[in-house]
Amino acid sequence: MKILLAGNPGAGKSVLFSRLTGSLVTSDNFPGTAIGFSSGHMRVANQNADVIDTPGVYSLGSSGQAGEVARKMLRDGDIIVNVVNATNLERDLYLTLELLEERIPIIVALNVWDDARHIGIEIDVAELEQMLGVPVVPTVATTGEGIKYLVESIPRAVMRANPAATREERWSRIGEIIGQAQKVTHRHHTLGESLADATVRPLPGTIIALLIAIAVFAFVVYGGETIYKFIAQPVFNALWLPIVSAISNLTAGVPFLHDILIGRLFDGQIDFVESWGLLTTALYVPFALVLPYIITFYFALGLLEDTGYLPRLAVMIDTIMHRFGMHGYAIIPTILGFGCNVPAMLATRVLESRKERFIAMTLIAIAVPCASLQALILGLVGQHGFQYVAIIYATLLTVWIIIGIILNRAVKGFTPELLIEIHPYRLMPWKLMMEKLWIRVRGFIIEAVPIMVIAVPVINVLYLTGVFQAITDFTAPVVSGLLGLPKEAVAAIFVAFFRMDAAMALLAPLELSAKQLVVSSVVLVMFFPCIATLMIMLREMGWKSLLIALGIMLCSGLAVGALLNLLPI
Amino acid sequence: MRDGQQALVSTVEGGRGLVEKLTAMGIRPGKRITRFCSMYLHGPITIRVDNVQLSLGRGIADKIFVIPDGLTDEDTSCR
Question: Domain A2-184 carries which CATH code?
Answer without folding.
Answer: 3.40.50.300
